[in-house]
Amino acid sequence: xxxxxxxxxxxxxxxxxxxxxxxxxxxxxxxxxxxxxxxxxxxxxxxxxxxxxxxxxxxxxxxxxxxxxxxxxxxxxxxxxxxxxxxxxxxxxxxxxxxxxxxxxxxxxxxxxxxxxxxxxxxxxxxxxxxxxxxxxxxxxxxxxxxxxxxxxxxxxxxxxxxxxxxxxxxxxxxxxxxxxxxxxxxxxxxxxxxxxxxxxxxxxxxxxxxxxxxxxxxxxxxxxxxxxxxxxxxxxxxxxxxxxxxxxxxxxxxxxxxxxxxxxxxxxxxxxxxxxxxxxxxxxxxx
Length: 288
Prior knowledge:
By secondary structure, the chain is mainly α. The chain has helices at residues 2-27, 35-51, 56-79, 85-104, 117-120, 127-151, 153-163, 165-170, 175-201, 212-230, 235-258, 266-287, and strands at residues 108-110, 203-205.
């Protein structure tokens, strides 16, 4: 039971990243690969500041700023230099690997001897229950703020930009500024996911972000499939389903591991899961 609870907590920690990918992929139709770098950047900044005894109240905004800068850089490369969004993300992600390595100062940092957010907000005797409670609290706050933002005039302008740039430009909205802002917000959410995961697993590693975009993509695709199937139009309910997709994705991986699959094959299983989520509906549509 604890094994599946751990998968649930990890799914909650990664839900923030899934929300970020939802913004870039579903709102702006941008395949943002910056995720791999900004996720590790959030974890690296968190680890370094925790080991230097910074308070969590100061670490969170610094982590958010770091993620925002990564997203802004990708947005500037895409909009100002007119480079394809996919290539822009790859370029920034590649550069962030060196940035993250220099931030860490070494390949990994253990966090066993520092006070994490899960210790600071502890209210239960069992650590796993505290991790679950903190994950729910953190994601509840993030999703609530994001849902509110997307329902404001600014959020509606962002969503309109993703639907039709020409229309938003005719309305006096700068689509490039909206894209840069959207990428910044998405990577803030991704960096916060790294912030949580680093403290949950009690270490930060330079390679922890490699392929993480696939996990987020799979989570978004699961949530989006449920949204389309149920015909959900309310934005805050859509966000809940995206977070639910993140949890379901981690549960599927947990089931695979519980069946005796070698952990070294986990990346392969992740890729196969995402391929199945994307491919099976298309094959069924062709048959129909």
